[in-house]
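User: I'm putting together a teaching handout on how multi-component assemblies are represented. Below are the sequence lines for each component of a complex, exactly as they appear in our records. Could you produce the 3D structure of the whole assembly as structure tokens, so the students can see both representations side by side? Please keep the chain order the same as the input.
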Amino acid sequence: MTDLLEKTRADAAPAFPTPVASPPRKRRRRVAPSVAVAGVFVVLLLVAVAVPQLFTAVDPYRAVPTEGLKAPSAEHWFGTDRLGRDIFARVVHGARYSILIGLAATAIAVVAGSIFGLVAGLSGRLIPGRFGLLVDETFGRLFDVISSFPAVLLAMVVVTFAGPGVQNIAVAIGIASIPMYGRVVRSQTLLVTRADFVTHAAVYGRTRRRIVAEHVLPNVLVAIPVLAAIDVGASILAVSGLSFLGLGPQAPIPEWGVMLAESRDVLRIAWWGGVFPGLFITASVIALTVLGRALQRHIDGRSS
Amino acid sequence: MKNQFRIAIVAAATFALTACAGGTAATNTDDGDPVTGGSLTWGVSVEPVCYNPQRSGQQNSFPIIRNFAESLVGKDADGEYTPWLADSWEISDDGLTYDLKLREGVTFTDGTVFDAEAVKTNLDFVADPANATAAGTGLTNFAGATVVDANTIELKLETPDAAFLDTLASITTAILSPASLALEGNDLCAANADLVGTGPFILSDYQAGQEISFVANEDYDSAPGYAAHTGRAYLDEVTYRFLPEATVRTGALSSNQVDIIEGVQVTDTALFDDQPGYVYETGPSTGTAFSLNINTRIAPADDVRVRQALRDGFDLDALVENQYLGTVQRAFSSIGPDSPFFDADLVDSWGDDVDGANELLDEAGWTDRDGEGFRTKDGERLTIVVGYPEPYIRDQRDVLLQGVQAQLKENIGLNLDVQSITSAQFTDELAKATWSVYPNTLPTSDPSILFRSIFGSEGFLYAKAPEFALDDLIAQSRATSVASERKAAFDEIQQTVVDDARYIPLYHPVYTVASTDLVHGISFEPTLNSPSSSYDLWTSK
Amino acid sequence: MAIALQQTSTRPKTGVLPWRRILTRLASGALVLWAAVTIAFFTLQAIPGDIADILAGEQTYPGLKEAISAEWGLDRSVFEQYLAFLGRLLSGDLGTSYVQRQPVADVLAAQVWSTVELAVVAGIVGAVLAVVLAVVSIGRSRVVRSAMSTLELVFTSVPTFWVGILLLMVFSFQWRLFPVAGANGWQSLVLPVVTLALPTAGFLAQVIRESMERTLTEPFIVTVRARGVAESLVLLRHALGHALLPVMTLVGGVIGGLLGGAVITETVFGRPGIGTITLGAVTGKDIPVVMAVVLFAALIYVVVSTVLDILYTIVDPRLRAQR
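Assistant: Of course. Below is the structure of the complete assembly, with chains in the same order as your input.
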């Protein structure tokens, strides 16, 4: 859903910087407290992804059946799961799966989507007349369909052929997000190719490829990081959702979605297994979204 | 030889007492007179992949299949054979000829008459290796059937077989309509009108992924000798809803969406056991324990020391106790504690010897460790794959295996890679003998048949690998019907497979059933250990 | 006076519908559907491996290979197969599931109602909730608005399956108010609907609020206020309708979100439905069913969004004037 929201915002022209040829000005701004908190959380999260041992010395895979289903206590901050594994340790070590797979999926989507979007935008321009408009509109609607298509379903299709696992769901979610970047790049390409300075460059005899490389690409790519920053949150939700369904990393990997799925059978008597992983998924997504929006506002401010 | 004759007499006598038979284990008969009519809904844990009794390998499919498929012979809770589709039988002194007198007036639900011809068609079909039926293993000594008259059939064996009556009592030799068997290119696994038996219920509706329902067979009168009543079923209609998640089943029963559930997870027992308004029952355990079968032809498990290290490298008592909270027993041998062939000598004789396990692995050359703490040799990590076919996973056994996996990693640095595979993948691995570890239980049957399946060279695990098989002992146990001789052979088999750790028993499973107190007549079928069909169930709703 | 002027200047000539625009919409909708079907077919061809083996998944029962070959016409050229595939789809034949051994259409039809029920009710609840949230926060203090913003952020950031689990824990296990699973009766709809409606509500609330804020700066609102209309009426009767127009174009995407969310919600609550079917088909490698679900979802989206696009074109007076 988050990506749909951003798509709406993408459609509204003022949300994105109009292509400029002059360098941006710097501006100082006070940082809102929510952004600061989000920033701190994300930093901690990234540290947990890189060096989980800093937060906990406990082995997340160590099963001690006699310690099964113990409530949160001083010894086990988040309690233990059915096999006696420490849930806090598993949450900390599990961060890397949700975050890294989400990042990988976003990266795949950005690269592939940009390529598709560039091609779509340029080809729409290259085919003249009404047919060109129809092709353009169809590309646009195709992107619409695929981007509105439930990412979960698309990912499931990929998993059907490729099987479950870490790499496969990264690719699957990446594919599902391609259209979002595709549309943005396409609309930016269209905008830019109509801008004056590009026409001027063509008049001066620059080849098409150089125009694309020097003018189209940089302006187009400015829009990407902002979208990506906000989209990572959506990717993380998709990763944990697919893992919850059993299509991603398999047990005993402590991915947060997998942990929630494992906790379901014993929820009636052990609530902690179903609360903490979900809390961290939510917090991560919120923090990344807040940061992403702050980044967007910052960039808007710079170019106005 | 005299034993067999005695069995026949007992069978005939039991038939005379059928009308007042008390039934099988754990019935709640003190609730007044049974009421005919009404309907019940079950919530079951597994949706059958195949509804053909002669082909299905899923234990949890059998309680549903029993509603329409019947066998020639029945078996009661004491292990005695009772009449069913066969009224009586005589066994020749040399044990090679069985004369069965079939029940008269029985018809298949498609109208065909049940007679000796139908029985011959069925047995010939099942025994034919080209048909690849599950019952094939029970009929390896079968030499052929001869129709004497409409209700008498003569079965000949090549060698005496102590397990033959067990085979005839098994659901895998259930009698289907010859018309169904004659259908070309149809393996009868689908739940539709092609699948016809003689049972107390007729398939009425099937929604894949959701439920299957049956209506009563009004003309039914071929109840087995161990059943609690005769004549048509009490219920007019019964539905089995497929609810694979344990909490969902529990919740469905608690909120009266279903009347009875099979497979109550351990942590929910307290909701039903000794609770007003509910009934909770557990079944017997006479089949094989839930065990790990290890393929001794695949490295690194081809080294007996590695297998023994695996066997001893974890605290099985603690794992079983903590997961099943005392509702099941940890296993030391294959055959379950309720069977007369249970080997009590093996109790406490192996397992939980981490130091010994580590020594064995050091001896076997797995002395280096990699970054994650797993042992390595020549750069190869010590990994043994467990491929658990997804349709057979139930009772949180995958969680138990994960516990074993975690302990093996920590205690001895062995990587037990537990994976869920599709049943088709498993069939493929079996065919190529590339399966690595196969966790399973077998539905109860005569142990000689069970062991032939998993330890014999004609079984499905060690097919064409006679050097690993225990064929001699198995054949011995089957040739004689002297109980003590048989037990000696079984004991030796069970001892051998545990000693060289090709077989690691984990626990003896039991089926659990919970229902509202409006449901009566709950029982467990002795030949299956699982809940019986819905024939004896009645409701006071 | 000013009002009359305004009305005449915006009222279009009666009976003039922007046909070209509508036809373009229909054409591109059909084109997209065709593209989706074609992509699906050729993806299947492109996957490495014999197509009969892929379709068989991992099934191996007697008569299977023959059935596949007959249905998909594997002995003919790829182009002929493609045409036959198109033909089958157009006649409503979604193929056969070789895993469940019945027509895919039967498999879907058996459980589609449950999903439709869930998605429609959740969509309506979500939309209503979104409107309430948006309207309540208009023109209020910064505290209220940022609280609303935060609430919407939480709604769209929290994983659906977690919400479902939490609701189950509180309302089913703890307080025994609602059933744990299944699809019998309205009680079993409540928790799944709430679970699915929250992200929809969060997302739509943001969009509606922003749209309303833009609308409230429009000149016609000034006019309405000048007439002395009460503020609440201004909001609800005049601004809201206008603000909802652009939201209409989003409904297709909302439906996509509902369908995707339904997959997860059905799993959490043990409800039958398309989601459960798809998950089963994915793990069982039942390709025909997976393909059918994908095409079905695409169909729903295209139909709904095309209809709404056309409605939007008809309803929006600014667009009507264009020919």
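A couple of points students might notice: Chain C touches chain B through 29 residues (CB under 8 Å). The first strand of chain C starts at residue 96 and ends at 97.
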